Amino acid sequence: MSAVNTSFLILSSILVLFMTPGLAFFYGGLVSRRNVVNTMLSVFFICGLAIVLWFACGYSLAFSGDLGGVIGNLKAVFFHGVALNHVMDTGITTGVYSLFQMMFAIITPALFIGAVVGRINFRFLVWFIIIWSLFIYYPMVHLVWSADGWLAKLGTLDFAGGTVVHINAGVTALMLSIWLGPRTKRESQHYNLPWVLLGTTILWIGWYGFNAGSALAVNSVALQAVFTTTIAAATSMVAWMIIEVYLKKRVTLVGTCTGTLCGLVGITPAAGYVTLAGAFWIGMIATIVSYVFVEYAKPKLKFDDPLDAFGCHGMSGIWGSIATGLFATHHVNSAVTTDGLFYGGGSHLLMVQIIATIATMVFVCLGVSIVTWVLKQFIPMRVTKKDEYLGLDIAEHGEMVDDNQGPRRDISQHPDEFRGQLSWLKRP
User: Fold this and answer.
1) Running DSSP on this structure, what letter comes out for residue 271?
2) CB-based contacts of 309: which residues, under 8 Å, 6+ apart?
3) Structural domain boundaries in the chain
4) H-type helices in 276-424, by residue range?
5) What is the pLDDT of residues 223-279, one digit of tens each?
6) Which one of 11, 83, 165, 420 is least enclosed by Cβ atoms within 10 Å?
7) What is its main location (predicted)?
Protein backbone atom coordinates (compact mmCIF):
# COMPACT_ATOMS: atom_id res chain seq x y z
CA MET A 1 0.00 0.00 0.00
CA SER A 2 1.24 3.49 -0.87
CA ALA A 3 0.87 5.61 2.25
CA VAL A 4 1.12 8.80 0.19
CA ASN A 5 -1.55 7.87 -2.33
CA THR A 6 -3.83 6.42 0.33
CA SER A 7 -3.54 9.55 2.48
CA PHE A 8 -4.19 11.68 -0.59
CA LEU A 9 -7.38 9.78 -1.42
CA ILE A 10 -8.62 9.91 2.18
CA LEU A 11 -8.12 13.68 2.13
CA SER A 12 -9.88 13.89 -1.24
CA SER A 13 -12.81 11.89 0.17
CA ILE A 14 -13.13 14.33 3.06
CA LEU A 15 -13.08 17.27 0.64
CA VAL A 16 -15.84 15.71 -1.48
CA LEU A 17 -17.93 15.10 1.64
CA PHE A 18 -17.34 18.75 2.60
CA MET A 19 -19.03 19.77 -0.67
CA THR A 20 -22.46 18.57 0.48
CA PRO A 21 -22.84 20.98 3.44
CA GLY A 22 -21.32 23.60 1.14
CA LEU A 23 -24.10 22.93 -1.35
CA ALA A 24 -26.63 23.17 1.51
CA PHE A 25 -25.41 26.71 2.25
CA PHE A 26 -25.37 27.61 -1.44
CA TYR A 27 -28.95 26.45 -2.02
CA GLY A 28 -30.14 27.62 1.41
CA GLY A 29 -28.93 31.14 0.71
CA LEU A 30 -30.69 31.26 -2.65
CA VAL A 31 -34.20 30.22 -1.59
CA SER A 32 -36.87 32.29 0.13
CA ARG A 33 -36.99 32.62 3.91
CA ARG A 34 -39.94 30.21 4.13
CA ASN A 35 -38.00 27.26 2.68
CA VAL A 36 -34.46 27.55 4.02
CA VAL A 37 -34.63 24.75 6.59
CA ASN A 38 -36.37 22.40 4.17
CA THR A 39 -33.83 23.07 1.43
CA MET A 40 -30.77 22.65 3.63
CA LEU A 41 -32.18 19.52 5.27
CA SER A 42 -33.10 18.05 1.88
CA VAL A 43 -29.44 18.35 0.88
CA PHE A 44 -27.80 17.35 4.14
CA PHE A 45 -29.85 14.27 5.07
CA ILE A 46 -28.53 12.60 1.92
CA CYS A 47 -25.17 12.25 3.70
CA GLY A 48 -26.66 9.61 5.96
CA LEU A 49 -29.00 7.99 3.46
CA ALA A 50 -26.45 7.64 0.65
CA ILE A 51 -23.78 6.17 2.94
CA VAL A 52 -26.16 3.50 4.24
CA LEU A 53 -27.29 2.67 0.68
CA TRP A 54 -23.72 2.49 -0.59
CA PHE A 55 -22.72 0.16 2.24
CA ALA A 56 -25.81 -2.01 1.84
CA CYS A 57 -25.80 -2.53 -1.91
CA GLY A 58 -24.46 0.48 -3.83
CA TYR A 59 -20.86 -0.67 -4.08
CA SER A 60 -22.00 -4.12 -5.10
CA LEU A 61 -24.32 -2.86 -7.85
CA ALA A 62 -21.65 -0.50 -9.14
CA PHE A 63 -18.47 -2.59 -9.04
CA SER A 64 -19.24 -6.25 -8.25
CA GLY A 65 -19.71 -8.44 -11.32
CA ASP A 66 -21.50 -7.40 -14.47
CA LEU A 67 -24.98 -7.82 -15.95
CA GLY A 68 -25.06 -6.80 -19.59
CA GLY A 69 -22.56 -4.00 -19.13
CA VAL A 70 -25.24 -1.97 -17.34
CA ILE A 71 -25.10 -2.91 -13.66
CA GLY A 72 -23.25 -5.18 -11.23
CA ASN A 73 -24.69 -7.90 -9.02
CA LEU A 74 -25.56 -8.36 -5.35
CA LYS A 75 -22.72 -10.65 -4.35
CA ALA A 76 -21.00 -7.90 -2.35
CA VAL A 77 -23.98 -6.59 -0.34
CA PHE A 78 -22.85 -5.08 2.95
CA PHE A 79 -19.32 -5.46 1.48
CA HIS A 80 -19.60 -9.24 1.86
CA GLY A 81 -16.45 -10.87 0.54
CA VAL A 82 -14.83 -7.56 -0.42
CA ALA A 83 -11.09 -7.53 0.34
CA LEU A 84 -10.87 -3.98 1.66
CA ASN A 85 -7.09 -4.26 2.05
CA HIS A 86 -6.50 -5.42 -1.52
CA VAL A 87 -3.92 -3.08 -3.09
CA MET A 88 -4.88 -1.63 -6.48
CA ASP A 89 -2.53 -0.50 -9.25
CA THR A 90 -1.90 2.98 -7.84
CA GLY A 91 -1.08 1.66 -4.38
CA ILE A 92 -4.45 2.48 -2.84
CA THR A 93 -6.70 -0.18 -1.36
CA THR A 94 -10.14 -1.28 -2.48
CA GLY A 95 -11.45 0.07 0.81
CA VAL A 96 -10.24 3.63 0.31
CA TYR A 97 -11.41 3.60 -3.33
CA SER A 98 -14.90 2.56 -2.23
CA LEU A 99 -14.81 5.35 0.38
CA PHE A 100 -13.98 7.88 -2.33
CA GLN A 101 -16.78 6.62 -4.56
CA MET A 102 -19.18 6.74 -1.62
CA MET A 103 -18.75 10.52 -1.44
CA PHE A 104 -19.77 10.85 -5.10
CA ALA A 105 -22.94 8.90 -4.27
CA ILE A 106 -23.73 11.59 -1.66
CA ILE A 107 -23.16 14.77 -3.65
CA THR A 108 -24.85 13.64 -6.89
CA PRO A 109 -28.47 13.44 -5.67
CA ALA A 110 -27.92 16.56 -3.56
CA LEU A 111 -27.35 18.55 -6.77
CA PHE A 112 -30.87 18.11 -8.14
CA ILE A 113 -32.50 19.41 -4.94
CA GLY A 114 -32.22 22.90 -6.43
CA ALA A 115 -34.94 22.06 -8.95
CA VAL A 116 -37.59 20.95 -6.46
CA VAL A 117 -37.29 23.40 -3.57
CA GLY A 118 -40.44 24.83 -2.06
CA ARG A 119 -42.95 22.34 -3.39
CA ILE A 120 -41.88 18.68 -3.16
CA ASN A 121 -43.21 16.33 -0.49
CA PHE A 122 -40.26 15.38 1.72
CA ARG A 123 -41.45 11.78 2.08
CA PHE A 124 -41.63 11.46 -1.71
CA LEU A 125 -38.12 12.91 -1.99
CA VAL A 126 -36.68 10.35 0.44
CA TRP A 127 -38.13 7.40 -1.45
CA PHE A 128 -37.24 8.91 -4.81
CA ILE A 129 -33.56 9.23 -3.84
CA ILE A 130 -33.50 5.61 -2.64
CA ILE A 131 -35.02 4.22 -5.84
CA TRP A 132 -33.10 6.67 -8.08
CA SER A 133 -29.83 5.54 -6.50
CA LEU A 134 -30.63 1.87 -7.07
CA PHE A 135 -31.89 2.07 -10.64
CA ILE A 136 -30.18 5.16 -12.09
CA TYR A 137 -27.07 6.25 -10.19
CA TYR A 138 -25.43 2.88 -9.52
CA PRO A 139 -26.01 1.71 -13.10
CA MET A 140 -24.45 4.97 -14.35
CA VAL A 141 -21.37 4.34 -12.20
CA HIS A 142 -21.11 0.82 -13.59
CA LEU A 143 -21.65 1.94 -17.18
CA VAL A 144 -18.86 4.52 -17.09
CA TRP A 145 -16.40 3.67 -14.32
CA SER A 146 -16.50 -0.11 -14.18
CA ALA A 147 -14.15 -1.86 -16.60
CA ASP A 148 -17.13 -4.03 -17.64
CA GLY A 149 -19.46 -1.09 -18.29
CA TRP A 150 -20.87 -0.57 -21.78
CA LEU A 151 -19.85 3.09 -22.00
CA ALA A 152 -16.41 2.29 -20.58
CA LYS A 153 -15.84 -0.35 -23.26
CA LEU A 154 -17.03 2.15 -25.86
CA GLY A 155 -14.08 4.34 -24.86
CA THR A 156 -15.92 7.05 -22.94
CA LEU A 157 -13.69 9.45 -21.04
CA ASP A 158 -15.19 10.84 -17.84
CA PHE A 159 -12.43 11.80 -15.45
CA ALA A 160 -14.49 12.85 -12.44
CA GLY A 161 -18.20 12.71 -13.24
CA GLY A 162 -19.44 14.64 -16.26
CA THR A 163 -21.91 11.91 -17.22
CA VAL A 164 -22.16 10.02 -13.93
CA VAL A 165 -22.63 13.08 -11.73
CA HIS A 166 -23.51 16.31 -13.52
CA ILE A 167 -25.48 15.25 -16.59
CA ASN A 168 -27.18 12.63 -14.45
CA ALA A 169 -28.14 15.12 -11.71
CA GLY A 170 -28.94 17.90 -14.18
CA VAL A 171 -31.30 15.83 -16.31
CA THR A 172 -32.90 14.42 -13.14
CA ALA A 173 -33.48 18.02 -12.00
CA LEU A 174 -35.08 18.87 -15.34
CA MET A 175 -37.41 15.88 -15.30
CA LEU A 176 -38.46 16.40 -11.67
CA SER A 177 -39.21 20.08 -12.28
CA ILE A 178 -41.42 19.11 -15.24
CA TRP A 179 -43.25 16.43 -13.25
CA LEU A 180 -43.74 18.78 -10.29
CA GLY A 181 -44.99 21.73 -12.26
CA PRO A 182 -44.29 25.40 -11.48
CA ARG A 183 -44.39 26.96 -8.04
CA THR A 184 -47.66 28.60 -7.04
CA LYS A 185 -45.79 31.77 -6.10
CA ARG A 186 -42.38 32.53 -7.56
CA GLU A 187 -40.12 34.60 -5.35
CA SER A 188 -36.93 36.28 -6.53
CA GLN A 189 -35.65 37.47 -3.15
CA HIS A 190 -32.81 35.35 -1.77
CA TYR A 191 -32.58 34.59 1.94
CA ASN A 192 -28.87 35.12 2.53
CA LEU A 193 -26.36 36.15 -0.15
CA PRO A 194 -23.30 35.68 2.14
CA TRP A 195 -24.37 32.02 2.46
CA VAL A 196 -24.32 31.77 -1.34
CA LEU A 197 -20.73 33.00 -1.40
CA LEU A 198 -19.80 30.72 1.50
CA GLY A 199 -21.34 27.72 -0.23
CA THR A 200 -19.59 28.53 -3.51
CA THR A 201 -16.24 28.81 -1.73
CA ILE A 202 -16.71 25.46 0.04
CA LEU A 203 -17.72 23.83 -3.24
CA TRP A 204 -14.67 25.22 -5.05
CA ILE A 205 -12.35 23.95 -2.32
CA GLY A 206 -14.07 20.58 -2.22
CA TRP A 207 -13.89 20.30 -6.00
CA TYR A 208 -10.13 19.75 -5.75
CA GLY A 209 -10.89 16.50 -3.94
CA PHE A 210 -13.51 15.76 -6.59
CA ASN A 211 -11.23 16.31 -9.59
CA ALA A 212 -7.64 15.88 -8.40
CA GLY A 213 -8.65 12.90 -6.25
CA SER A 214 -9.94 11.15 -9.36
CA ALA A 215 -6.32 10.63 -10.42
CA LEU A 216 -6.25 8.11 -7.52
CA ALA A 217 -2.58 8.96 -6.87
CA VAL A 218 -0.21 11.83 -6.22
CA ASN A 219 1.10 12.20 -9.75
CA SER A 220 1.28 14.54 -12.72
CA VAL A 221 -2.36 13.88 -13.64
CA ALA A 222 -3.55 14.99 -10.20
CA LEU A 223 -1.45 18.15 -10.50
CA GLN A 224 -2.88 18.78 -13.96
CA ALA A 225 -6.41 18.36 -12.58
CA VAL A 226 -5.72 20.97 -9.89
CA PHE A 227 -4.51 23.45 -12.52
CA THR A 228 -7.30 22.82 -15.02
CA THR A 229 -9.96 23.01 -12.29
CA THR A 230 -8.62 26.36 -11.09
CA ILE A 231 -8.29 27.87 -14.56
CA ALA A 232 -11.71 26.71 -15.75
CA ALA A 233 -13.46 28.00 -12.62
CA ALA A 234 -11.73 31.39 -12.77
CA THR A 235 -12.32 31.80 -16.51
CA SER A 236 -15.98 30.90 -16.16
CA MET A 237 -16.43 33.33 -13.28
CA VAL A 238 -14.89 36.22 -15.22
CA ALA A 239 -16.85 35.31 -18.36
CA TRP A 240 -20.16 35.48 -16.45
CA MET A 241 -19.20 38.85 -14.99
CA ILE A 242 -18.32 40.23 -18.42
CA ILE A 243 -21.62 39.02 -19.86
CA GLU A 244 -23.55 40.64 -17.01
CA VAL A 245 -21.72 43.94 -17.41
CA TYR A 246 -22.34 43.95 -21.15
CA LEU A 247 -25.99 42.85 -21.07
CA LYS A 248 -27.24 44.08 -17.67
CA LYS A 249 -24.81 46.91 -16.86
CA ARG A 250 -24.07 45.41 -13.43
CA VAL A 251 -22.34 42.48 -11.76
CA THR A 252 -24.28 40.33 -9.28
CA LEU A 253 -22.96 38.07 -6.54
CA VAL A 254 -25.39 35.31 -7.49
CA GLY A 255 -24.28 35.47 -11.12
CA THR A 256 -20.60 35.48 -10.21
CA CYS A 257 -21.04 32.41 -8.00
CA THR A 258 -23.13 30.67 -10.65
CA GLY A 259 -20.47 31.31 -13.26
CA THR A 260 -17.83 29.84 -10.99
CA LEU A 261 -19.84 26.64 -10.58
CA CYS A 262 -20.41 26.37 -14.33
CA GLY A 263 -16.67 26.29 -14.88
CA LEU A 264 -16.19 23.68 -12.18
CA VAL A 265 -18.93 21.53 -13.69
CA GLY A 266 -17.66 21.93 -17.24
CA ILE A 267 -14.09 20.90 -16.46
CA THR A 268 -15.04 17.88 -14.32
CA PRO A 269 -15.13 15.22 -17.09
CA ALA A 270 -11.99 16.62 -18.72
CA ALA A 271 -9.88 17.73 -15.74
CA GLY A 272 -7.21 15.05 -16.03
CA TYR A 273 -7.21 14.83 -19.82
CA VAL A 274 -6.80 18.39 -21.15
CA THR A 275 -4.18 21.11 -21.28
CA LEU A 276 -4.43 24.42 -19.46
CA ALA A 277 -5.50 26.09 -22.71
CA GLY A 278 -8.22 23.48 -23.07
CA ALA A 279 -9.42 24.24 -19.54
CA PHE A 280 -9.61 27.95 -20.42
CA TRP A 281 -11.90 27.36 -23.39
CA ILE A 282 -14.00 24.78 -21.58
CA GLY A 283 -14.59 27.20 -18.70
CA MET A 284 -15.42 30.13 -20.96
CA ILE A 285 -17.88 28.25 -23.16
CA ALA A 286 -19.48 26.56 -20.13
CA THR A 287 -20.57 29.99 -18.91
CA ILE A 288 -21.86 31.02 -22.34
CA VAL A 289 -23.86 27.80 -22.76
CA SER A 290 -25.38 27.96 -19.28
CA TYR A 291 -26.06 31.72 -19.39
CA VAL A 292 -27.86 31.53 -22.72
CA PHE A 293 -29.97 28.62 -21.51
CA VAL A 294 -30.88 30.20 -18.15
CA GLU A 295 -31.62 33.68 -19.48
CA TYR A 296 -33.19 32.93 -22.86
CA ALA A 297 -34.15 29.28 -23.37
CA LYS A 298 -35.54 28.48 -19.91
CA PRO A 299 -38.22 31.23 -19.88
CA LYS A 300 -39.55 29.97 -23.21
CA LEU A 301 -39.60 26.34 -22.09
CA LYS A 302 -41.60 27.36 -19.01
CA PHE A 303 -40.44 24.60 -16.66
CA ASP A 304 -39.69 25.76 -13.10
CA ASP A 305 -36.13 24.99 -11.97
CA PRO A 306 -35.78 27.64 -9.21
CA LEU A 307 -32.02 27.33 -8.61
CA ASP A 308 -31.07 26.36 -12.18
CA ALA A 309 -29.81 22.90 -11.35
CA PHE A 310 -30.22 21.87 -14.98
CA GLY A 311 -29.07 25.20 -16.37
CA CYS A 312 -25.80 24.95 -14.43
CA HIS A 313 -25.05 21.26 -13.88
CA GLY A 314 -26.92 19.87 -16.85
CA MET A 315 -25.89 22.31 -19.57
CA SER A 316 -22.28 22.79 -18.41
CA GLY A 317 -21.98 19.04 -17.82
CA ILE A 318 -23.19 18.29 -21.34
CA TRP A 319 -20.71 20.78 -22.79
CA GLY A 320 -17.84 19.44 -20.65
CA SER A 321 -18.54 15.86 -21.69
CA ILE A 322 -18.56 16.74 -25.38
CA ALA A 323 -15.58 19.10 -25.01
CA THR A 324 -13.50 16.21 -23.70
CA GLY A 325 -13.72 14.80 -27.22
CA LEU A 326 -12.30 18.06 -28.52
CA PHE A 327 -9.47 18.81 -26.09
CA ALA A 328 -8.29 15.49 -24.57
CA THR A 329 -4.68 14.59 -25.33
CA HIS A 330 -2.32 11.74 -24.47
CA HIS A 331 0.37 14.31 -23.68
CA VAL A 332 -1.53 15.04 -20.45
CA ASN A 333 -2.70 11.52 -19.63
CA SER A 334 -1.56 8.26 -21.18
CA ALA A 335 -5.06 6.86 -20.58
CA VAL A 336 -6.16 8.90 -23.60
CA THR A 337 -5.57 6.37 -26.38
CA THR A 338 -7.19 8.53 -29.08
CA ASP A 339 -6.61 12.28 -28.95
CA GLY A 340 -9.43 14.77 -29.24
CA LEU A 341 -10.39 16.53 -32.46
CA PHE A 342 -8.30 19.64 -31.75
CA TYR A 343 -5.19 17.57 -31.03
CA GLY A 344 -5.04 15.58 -34.24
CA GLY A 345 -7.05 12.55 -33.21
CA GLY A 346 -9.88 13.02 -35.67
CA SER A 347 -13.55 12.75 -34.83
CA HIS A 348 -13.51 9.30 -33.17
CA LEU A 349 -13.29 10.43 -29.54
CA LEU A 350 -15.70 13.28 -30.16
CA MET A 351 -18.30 10.85 -31.53
CA VAL A 352 -17.77 8.53 -28.55
CA GLN A 353 -18.34 11.43 -26.16
CA ILE A 354 -21.45 12.55 -28.01
CA ILE A 355 -22.87 9.01 -27.93
CA ALA A 356 -22.12 8.70 -24.20
CA THR A 357 -23.71 12.09 -23.50
CA ILE A 358 -26.89 11.31 -25.44
CA ALA A 359 -27.11 7.81 -23.97
CA THR A 360 -26.83 9.23 -20.45
CA MET A 361 -29.55 11.81 -21.11
CA VAL A 362 -31.94 9.27 -22.61
CA PHE A 363 -31.32 6.71 -19.86
CA VAL A 364 -31.84 9.27 -17.07
CA CYS A 365 -34.93 10.80 -18.72
CA LEU A 366 -36.62 7.44 -19.03
CA GLY A 367 -35.48 6.22 -15.62
CA VAL A 368 -36.63 9.33 -13.75
CA SER A 369 -39.99 9.33 -15.54
CA ILE A 370 -40.65 5.69 -14.66
CA VAL A 371 -39.54 6.07 -11.03
CA THR A 372 -41.59 9.25 -10.60
CA TRP A 373 -44.75 7.79 -12.15
CA VAL A 374 -44.58 4.66 -10.01
CA LEU A 375 -43.92 6.58 -6.79
CA LYS A 376 -46.77 8.99 -7.47
CA GLN A 377 -49.16 6.05 -7.29
CA PHE A 378 -48.28 5.62 -3.61
CA ILE A 379 -47.01 8.96 -2.28
CA PRO A 380 -48.13 12.50 -3.18
CA MET A 381 -45.28 14.16 -5.05
CA ARG A 382 -46.23 17.73 -4.27
CA VAL A 383 -47.25 19.43 -1.05
CA THR A 384 -50.67 21.06 -0.77
CA LYS A 385 -51.21 24.67 -1.86
CA LYS A 386 -51.72 25.63 1.77
CA ASP A 387 -48.38 24.15 2.78
CA GLU A 388 -46.66 25.78 -0.17
CA TYR A 389 -48.02 29.19 0.80
CA LEU A 390 -47.06 28.68 4.44
CA GLY A 391 -43.58 27.46 3.52
CA LEU A 392 -42.14 23.99 3.89
CA ASP A 393 -40.04 24.94 6.91
CA ILE A 394 -43.19 25.13 9.00
CA ALA A 395 -45.42 22.79 7.01
CA GLU A 396 -42.96 19.89 6.70
CA HIS A 397 -40.62 20.34 9.67
CA GLY A 398 -42.14 22.76 12.19
CA GLU A 399 -38.93 24.81 12.26
CA MET A 400 -37.95 28.29 11.14
CA VAL A 401 -34.56 29.52 10.01
CA ASP A 402 -34.70 32.62 12.26
CA ASP A 403 -35.14 32.33 16.01
CA ASN A 404 -36.83 35.73 16.13
CA GLN A 405 -39.88 34.43 14.29
CA GLY A 406 -41.78 33.96 17.57
CA PRO A 407 -45.38 34.24 16.29
CA ARG A 408 -44.69 31.85 13.44
CA ARG A 409 -43.21 29.34 15.90
CA ASP A 410 -46.33 29.61 18.03
CA ILE A 411 -48.42 28.84 14.96
CA SER A 412 -46.47 25.67 14.27
CA GLN A 413 -46.76 24.50 17.87
CA HIS A 414 -50.42 25.40 18.42
CA PRO A 415 -52.09 25.38 14.98
CA ASP A 416 -55.65 24.85 16.28
CA GLU A 417 -55.58 28.14 18.20
CA PHE A 418 -54.72 30.04 15.02
CA ARG A 419 -57.19 28.31 12.71
CA GLY A 420 -59.21 31.47 12.13
CA GLN A 421 -56.22 33.66 11.44
CA LEU A 422 -54.85 31.08 8.98
CA SER A 423 -58.07 30.74 7.01
CA TRP A 424 -56.61 32.86 4.21
CA LEU A 425 -54.28 29.97 3.42
CA LYS A 426 -57.26 28.09 2.00
CA ARG A 427 -57.40 30.53 -0.89
CA PRO A 428 -55.90 29.17 -4.15
Assistant:
1) T
2) 111, 112, 113, 114, 115, 169, 170, 173, 174
3) 3-390
4) 276-292, 298-301, 309, 315-327, 348-376, 385-390, 392, 406-413
5) 999 999 999 999 999 999 999 999 999 999 999 999 999 999 999 999 999 999 999
6) 420
7) membrane
